[in-house]
Design brief:
Shape of chain B: globular
Strand order of the largest sheet of chain B: 1-7-8-9-6-5-2-3-4
Largest sheet of chain A: 11 strands, mixed
CATH topology of the largest domain in chain A: Rossmann fold
Number of strands of chain B: 9
Number of domains of chain A: 4
Distance between the termini of chain B: 12 Å
Distance between the termini of chain A: 85 Å
Number of strands of chain A: 22
Number of helices of chain B: 13
Radius of gyration of chain A: 34 Å
Bound molecules: adenosine-5'-triphosphate, magnesium ion
Oligomer: heterodimer
Order of helices and strands of chain B: HHEHEEEHHEHHEHHEEEHHHH
Strand content of chain B: 15-25%
Chain lengths: 623, 340
């Protein structure tokens, strides 16, 4: 049955209201307005409303219609609930010179009429990220190859069928419109969306480096409840590399500037004195050990100056020791005046120790480079965010330079070993490149944001706090995927940095998880998308409460095993020392008593009240 | 904001009017006396009861209720640049093939030669009957509207076969304005066993005063049914006129009823052949009337909403199908162009 839809009320050049009695409107669906002057006009539903036009009848004078009135009418077939009028506010997708005619007929388009608007790249050549919202009805006329490629997911119901036209991000167009931002509040679907993008990049064998601050980017585990036909095995297409374990920074390649950056990352702001000390002491080519020794030796030389000088002059000193002392004094001679006092040196030493413990300087980046050259995805982890940042600043710079050198050489017609274009993705981007604040990786991220397009190096940056991300970088993200956002600062940033309309930004706080507005210079309009089901999921994380319970059970079981052959135990005469010895840790009397009574409640022990306390024994056995 | 300008004379006259109305009311007999008078001379008070869903079901047998109403809208001020849009609608409570109403329409304008001729005929007739010519249009208007309403009711009986047709207004209007069509309606609806009721909100008749004659206090002998019955019926009560009393025309039967807390009575016309169903129909109407409302069955309000065309709707429709410049040149009343 075809539905009657009509332009009603006041129309402008940009907006019309469309009403229908028998058809509900879907937010974001595309409709065609058959205007007698302009012909068919495409418009997008940006707001929907239904109201029951008979409810006002009831409420004008009398507070409510008695149920008996409605029941009486229902008995002869009339259901007041069905008497809704549906109204949609529709934004026209083209700018007109005069308003549309009120009363004009409106209809649902055929797929071919809006195909260009919806699908910019065939699925085999683009990133199939989800379903365009509001396209369920037109999707029935879609060619087979667009069907069933973007099933949906819901934690409650598992996999759901694709209910509309697929959203295919044309990553080829990144050559002109580089970089992607993924924004949204906690739980809004950023990580899920990132996973889907990364799966698609793996499908297309795009070399990608992913910094993984949350240890969630693994692709080994299939999505729970996944349809077997949708399953995909990504093994062999990605590697996981941990900074300080199987990759690291080559210290000897660092210049003083970079070293200062690393030390800053490891412990916060550097004082000016510390910076001066670094520039004074560091020489390119220093290894971690030579630099480390230089710092500690200088501290020693400055602190024990008098004693060292005396020792140096003393007759009894061992020649080898004398040599060492001489070296220290020379060091002091050379650097003491530049450094001033030992406080900045101690600050540097502390930071060096901290970094050293992470073994950041122990390995190179060969594993990463090899994988990138094989067009794989490399997940990079670190023991903490700052370790990751230090490594990122080093790695991205290094790889970016190699790619640039290759490209420049190619341009000059010189031969150089191939280095592929690649993508750099990270969550917590506002920590890597914060606004109005220094961070080790900031300058290289900026450089890639501004120049990466020329060399085929692209960023995918996710952040909960777009307002805190360096704005030079934000401005370079030509595609922004915006999930649910509730903070007004962040909404304001999105308003400024995207072409989203008032209506769309007003909806940001209410988006369900996994639904986003994709605002892209590639498309030229904001597309509402529900991100598809991922094929994999982040490694299962134990529920924190289950974790607590298990922990308690473990503790009880250990206690039980320890005291079993000390039974029966009388609480007034407990041998705590023996219990501590068996458990290998201190135990208070309270803890012992509580644990015994808990074990009794669990039926593991028998509890008897005796004169001043309790007596515990194994159940079913006489004392 | 604006300040009302009221001449002192208006206030004086309004107060005088109030005094006159007060005297009229003072002449009315007391509640019980008047009810005794009515029972002795006119009919019987009957308590209505809401009917249960089961009763409705067994009575309607799955057949719906249809409400019939009409509307007329005019546009333009100066003859012949005027047009009139008539629409009558029969709305069923149970949609048939997704459709919940039937409509008939007619657009009349002296700009159409045939309409002009009809108007001139009407004028000639009035001239012959020595009636004022200004009534020519009024007469045509009433006829067209009544005809359309009956037409759509006939279609509803044939196509929908409801168990009950509710008209918005009494039967006399159809007899006077659409005699032949109305007779046809009467015939087919009786044949098909479709019950008809005309619900009259403003009972501008003086039937009670006529029947009671000098049994009424002198001041009330010219009183309308409406004000005579005001507050006389209890909520959920009807006054059935004795069958031997000829009220209106012999083929009709009329009852008064009060369906809500509001003290005004409404009148209901029936065909005399269907007098056995009066109680059931009144019970049903009582059931579907909001207690806090003005006493009209909800279904009629719903049908009215459906058929009514607002000024805005009309403008919209005209602007869609008439060229803007033609509309401006010939039709749009100049005062519509007022700024405020
Ligand atoms: N596209 C989706 N389809 C179905 N469920 C989703 C989708 N996106 C997110 N979810 C659900 O919402 C949960 C939270 O999503 P996700 O972990 O991606 O949030 P986030 O934005 O990364 O939050 P945080 O900033 O706290 O890391 C997921 O575990 C999943 O259950
Ligand atoms: Mg996340």
């Amino acid at each position: 049955m075809s539905h009657m839809m009509q332009v009603v009320g006041v129309a402008t050049q940009q907006f019309v209201y469309v009403a229908s009695r028998d058809r509900k409107f879907n937010i974001n669906e595309i409709l065609l307005v058959e205007d007698p002057v302009y012909g068919d006009l495409k418009g997008e539903v940006i707001e929907t409303q239904s109201f029951n036009r008979y409810i006002p009848l009831a409420t004008e004078r009398n507070s409510l219609l008695e149920p008996r009135v409605l029941d009486g009418l229902r008995q002869v077939g009339f259901r007041i609930e069905d008497e809704e009028i549906n109204i949609a506010k529709v934004r026209l997708l083209e700018e007109l010179t005069a308003p549309v005619k009120t009363g004009a007929n409106v209809r649902v388009p055929e797929f071919y009429e809006i195909e260009k608007l919806l699908v910019s790249r065939p699925p085999e050549e683009g990133l199939v990220l989800g379903v365009i919202r509001g396209t369920a009805e037109v999707a029935s006329g879609m060619p087979e190859k667009l069907k069933g490629i973007a099933p949906l997911y819901d934690r409650e119901h598992g996999m759901l069928p694709q209910d509309g036209v697929p959203f295919i991000l044309d990553h080829w167009a990144m050559a002109d419109y580089p970089h992607i931002g993924i924004f949204g509040g906690s739980g809004s679907g950023k990580s899920f969306g990132m996973r889907v993008i990364l799966e698609e990049l793996m499908r297309h064998e795009v070399p990608t480096i992913v910094f993984d601050p949350h240890f969630e980017m693994d692709f080994a585990e299939p999505l729970e409840g996944i349809d077997p036909s949708f399953r995909e095995d990504f093994s062999g297409r990605y590697v996981i590399v941990t900074a300080g374990k199987d990759a690291g920074v080559a210290f000897e390649e660092l210049n003083s500037n970079q070293l200062a950056g690393l030390l800053r990352a490891s412990g916060g702001v550097l004082t000016e004195a510390m910076e001066n000390a670094i520039y004074a002491l560091h020489r390119q080519g220093d290894t971690y050990v030579t630099f480390y020794n230089k710092v500690y030796d200088l501290i020693e030389a400055m602190e024990k100056e008098r004693a060292l000088e005396e020792a140096f002059r003393s007759q009894e000193i061992d020649p080898r020791e004398k040599e060492r002392v001489g070296a220290l004094l020379e060091l002091k001679q050379e650097f003491a005046s530049k450094v001033g006092n030992v406080a900045p040196l101690k600050g540097i030493a502390w930071r060096l120790d901290r970094i050293g413990r992470e073994k950041v300087f122990n390995y190179g980046i060969d594993r990463v480079v090899d994988a990138i050259k094989q067009q794989k995805l490399v997940v990079i982890r670190g023991s903490s965010l700052w370790v990751l940042q230090i490594f990122a600043s080093y790695l991205v710079k290094k790889m970016y330079d190699q790619r640039r050198e290759f490209r420049d050489a190619q341009q000059r017609g010189e031969h150089k070993e191939f280095f592929p274009p690649f993508v750099v993705a990270t969550d917590e981007a506002h920590n890597f490149a914060p606004k109005n604040q220094e961070a080790p990786a900031k300058s290289v991220f900026r450089e890639v944001a501004q120049e990466g397009r020329k060399y085929g190096v692209f960023l995918i940056l996710a952040s909960q706090r777009p307002a805190l991300l360096d704005d030079t970088i934000t401005a370079q993200l030509n595609t922004k995927i915006v999930f649910r956002t509730t903070r007004s600062y962040d909404i304001a940033t999105m308003k400024e940095e995207t072409d989203m309309t008032e209506d769309e930004t007003a909806r940001l706080p209410y988006l369900p998880s996994g639904v986003a507005f994709v605002s892209s210079a590639m498309v030229g309009r904001t597309v509402p998308v529900r991100i598809r089901a991922s094929k994999t999921q982040s490694p299962h994380r134990e529920n924190p409460f289950a974790e607590l319970r298990k922990k308690a059970e473990d503790r009880d079981a250990r206690f039980f095993r320890a005291v079993k052959d000390m039974l029966p135990i009388v609480t007034t005469r407990m041998d705590l020392v023996e219990i501590e010895k068996r458990l290998g840790r201190p135990v208070t009397e309270d803890e012992a008593r509580d644990t015994l009574s808990r074990l009794a409640r669990l039926g593991k022990l028998r509890e008897e009240k005796i004169l001043l306390g309790y007596r515990y024994s194994l159940p079913g056995r006489d004392a | 904001m604006r300040v009302l300008v009221f001449d002192e004379g208006i206030k004086v006259r309004l107060r005088e009017l109030n005094d006159r109305l007060a005297t009229r009311r003072a002449g009315r007999p007391g509640f019980d006396d008047f009810r005794r008078l009515l029972e002795a001379n006119l009919g019987r008070f009957v308590s209505l009861a809401p009917i249960s869903e089961d009763e409705i079901d067994s009575w309607a047998q799955g057949r719906p209720v249809v409400g019939v109403d009409g509307s007329v809208n005019s546009y333009g001020e100066s003859y012949p640049y005027v047009l009139h849009i008539f629409q009558a609608s029969a709305r069923t409570t149970r949609p048939l093939d997704g459709k919940d109403h039937l409509t008939c329409s007619s657009v009349v304008s002296p700009l159409f030669p045939e309409d002009r001729r009809a108007l001139e005929d009407e004028r000639d007739r009035l001239m012959r009957e020595d009636k004022p010519l200004e009534l020519a249009w009024e007469g045509l208007r009433h006829r067209r509207l009544a005809e359309l309403e009956v037409e759509v009711a006939i279609r509803a009986v044939n196509e929908i076969r409801p168990f009950l047709v509710i008209f918005d207004g009494g039967f006399m209007r159809y007899v006077v304005q659409a005699f032949d069509k109305w007779n046809e309606y009467r015939r087919v609806s009786l044949e098909q066993g479709v019950i008809s009721v005309g619900v009259i909100e403003e009972t501008a008749t003086k039937l009670i005063a006529e029947v009671l004659g000098d049994k009424l206090p002198p001041g009330l002998r010219d009183e309308h049914d409406r004000s005579l019955l005001f507050g006389v019926l209890r909520e959920g009560e009807a006054l059935g006129i004795r069958e031997d009393i000829r009220f209106k025309r012999s083929e009709f039967y009329t009852a008064f009823a009060r369906f809500s807390r509001h003290p005004q009575a409404i009148a209901c016309d029936f065909f005399r052949e269907q007098v056995d169903h009066v109680k059931e129909v009144l019970d049903f109407l009582y059931t579907i009337t909001p207690q806090g409302g003005r006493g009209m069955p909800l279904w009629l309000d719903i049908v009215d909403q459906e058929v009514r065309i607002t000024g805005q709707d009309l403008e919209m429709m005209l602007s869609l199908y008439l060229d803007r410049d033609l509309m401006e040149m010939f039709l749009r009343p100049h005062r519509d162009r007022r700024d405020y």
